[in-house]
Design brief:
Layout (H helix, E strand, L loop, with lengths): L17 H5 L8 H10 L7 H11 L11 H10 L6 H6 L7
Length: about 100
């Protein structure tokens, strides 16, 4: 079975996340800390997309997920209220407002 057929709840991606391995706080207090954390940790993480999809699908309000701050995710969600499965967007099966 390919990964495309599994739901994210069936994939144990968090243990492969760079922030987990390095024990990095992904819930920084200031916007500057959030951007630094995202740039320093997320952009070289191999499960970045999985993390971002999880946060967007759950409408996660706090922390840095998949390289996006809470403010960036809120903006994206607000601009795309009809998206229910962000995995479809990142696979290219659906388009969103940028």
């Amino acid at each position: 079975m390919g990964l495309g057929l599994l739901s994210y709840s069936e994939i144990d991606w968090p243990k492969d996340a760079k922030c987990y391995i390095l024990n990095v706080d992904m819930f920084p207090r200031t916007a500057d800390e959030q951007h630094y954390t995202a740039a320093a940790v997320c952009f070289s993480c191999r499960v970045r997309r999985d993390c971002l999809v999880e946060a967007l699908n759950r409408r996660e309000d706090h922390g840095v997920w998949g390289g996006m701050t809470e403010r960036e995710r809120r903006k994206l969600l607000k601009e795309n209220p009809n998206v229910t499965d962000w995995n479809e967007v990142f696979r290219g099966d659906r388009t969103v407002a940028a």
